[in-house]
Amino acid sequence: MSRNVWILLSLCCGLISWPFIAQLLPNNHVIRSPKLKVNLNYILPGKALTINWNGTPIFIKNRTLPEIRSSRLVKLNDLKDVFARNDNLDARSLAFDRNRCADTSCVNWLVLVASCTHLGCVPEIKSNGWNCTCHGSFYDNSGRIISGPAPHNLRVPRCKRRSNLMIIG
């Protein structure tokens, strides 16, 4: 066969197979959203919500006053990681409870990337924090690593609160 016939056959095969190939491409529903808005009215004090944001698990917790008080009593010397790991603050900010909150004006709201900093498991919520059952890491009510093999505190993603909404991203 001549070169022109091969080109014509290749073009025809491409045109015939394009509808099949096009359906495998991501559509607008799959494309990642840069921001996520969560209605905070449905998260009662003491409760946490686990959501999926662009494939990343996120904890949003409405802490009670006793939980905040107990978190404020923890000394930096008792922590494995002394840095806040809060994307809303400077990287050198220390892991005081106030630096782990979503915003200084709403100390009861805690937003955390729900992925253990050891091997990426999703910790389970407990009354006094989060426990990663995979390898035994324990995080307090501020998401700071207290014990176990995890090297860092749970990260606080970029977020801000607008009245009854938490905007993540």
Features:
elongated; 2 helices; Rieske Iron-sulfur Protein; four-stranded antiparallel sheet; three-stranded antiparallel sheet; alpha+beta; 169 residues
Give a description of the structure:
There is one protein chain. Helices cover 18% and strands 25% of the residues. By secondary structure, the chain is α+β, with helices and mostly antiparallel strands. The protein has one domain (36-168): Rieske [2Fe-2S] iron-sulphur domain (Rieske Iron-sulfur Protein). The strands form three sheets. The protein has a four-stranded antiparallel sheet, with no helix packed on it. Strand 7 (137-139) and strand 8 form a beta hairpin. The longest helix is centred in the N-terminal third of the chain and has 22 residues, at 3-24.
Strand order of the largest sheet: 5-6-7-8
The CATH class, by name, is Mainly Beta
**So what's the overall shape?**
elongated
Helix/strand class: alpha+beta
**CATH topology annotation:** Rieske Iron-sulfur Protein
Mean pLDDT: 83
Q: How would you name the CATH homologous superfamily?
A: Rieske [2Fe-2S] iron-sulphur domain
- Strand content is 25-35%
Q: How many strands in all?
A: 10
Residue runs with pLDDT of under 50 for 5 or more positions: none
The share of residues in helices is 10-25%
Report the C-alpha radius of gyration, rounded: 23 Å
Structural domain count:
1
The CATH level-2 architecture is identified as 3-layer Sandwich
Would you list the SSEs in sequence order as H and E? HEEEHEEEEEEE
Distance, first to last CA:
57 Å
Number of helices, counting only DSSP H or I runs of 4 residues or more: 2
Largest sheet: 4 strands, antiparallel
